[in-house]
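Retry 2 of 3 after timeout on previous attempt. Resubmitting structure tokens to design endpoint.
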């Protein structure tokens, strides 16, 4: 059986997946445009590890730079609930989904032009073994691409308060913001098989309502595993933070729509 972090296994387990798919932000068009310029290949075999409910997959296949570029996409996802929603929401015949994780993909050796990991690589339990698996399934000129979305606490006081309130429940989980995933660059197999990483960060803004913010908070693994009483308190506190009108930049105040500052992060590791 693939090794999956217990909080991820429970927090993204059965019963959480529809909320995750509804609440989590998609991936911005400029991310895919940048990737298309970086790769510049007409037809690609793609592996997506930690594919979740298919949020990244759907955005990739819908982007004009990628609609016809993907020859075949093999999605790897350890959660049965996530795979179920993925199968319901991603209906492109070029796409398949199967159980697996970072170091157990069951993909043929030398098959992939690209490996995508969106909003997931920080959960990897063994970066060295994962690097060996990535190198095995990639073609000689292939590349690993990791992408994350993260609420930007530096551009908005209410977002800073929001993150401070909810991050106290992380309890040692290897969240992206902590940068523990950067340990991959020091592992023997990464250094043997991959070049120095290329990194890119973009600030952007989403349109949100209070309901959007609350649902997004509740979709986080470390919040979804809380007791009902603890979750109720988190929701109450998040509502209070969101209702501080002076802290928000309104897009349409009459409809309750305001700016939700985010950042998109990308790391590209090309095979040596």
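Retry 2 succeeded. Sequence:
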């Amino acid at each position: 059986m693939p090794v999956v972090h217990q909080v991820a296994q429970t927090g993204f387990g059965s019963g959480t997946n529809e909320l995750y798919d509804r609440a989590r932000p998609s991936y911005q068009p400029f991310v895919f445009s940048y990737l298309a310029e970086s790769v510049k290949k007409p037809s690609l075999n793609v592996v997506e590890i930690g594919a979740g409910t298919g949020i990244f997959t759907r955005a990739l296949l819908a982007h004009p730079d990628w609609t016809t570029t993907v020859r075949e996409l093999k999605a790897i996802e350890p959660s049965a609930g996530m795979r179920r929603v993925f199968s319901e929401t991603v209906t492109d015949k070029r796409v398949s989904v199967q159980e697996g994780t970072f170091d157990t993909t069951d993909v043929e050796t030398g098959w992939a032009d690209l490996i995508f990991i969106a909003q997931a690589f920080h959960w990897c339990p063994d970066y060295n073994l994962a690097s060996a698996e990535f190198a095995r399934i990639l073609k000689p000129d292939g590349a690993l691409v990791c992408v994350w979305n993260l609420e930007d606490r530096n551009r908005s006081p209410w977002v800073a308060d929001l993150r401070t309130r909810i991050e106290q429940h992380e309890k040692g989980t290897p969240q992206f913001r902590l940068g523990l995933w950067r340990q991959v660059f020091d592992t023997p197999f990464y250094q043997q098989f991959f070049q120095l990483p290329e990194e890119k960060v973009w600030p952007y803004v989403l349109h949100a309502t209070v309901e959007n913010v609350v649902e997004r908070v509740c979709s986080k693994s470390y919040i979804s595993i809380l007791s009902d009483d603890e979750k109720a308190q988190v929701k109450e506190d998040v509502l209070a933070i969101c209702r501080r009108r002076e802290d928000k930049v309104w897009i349409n105040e009459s409809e309750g729509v305001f700016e939700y500052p985010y950042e998109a992060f990308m790391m590209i590791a090309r095979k040596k």
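Attempt log closed. The CA atoms of residues 209 and 257 lie 5 Å apart.
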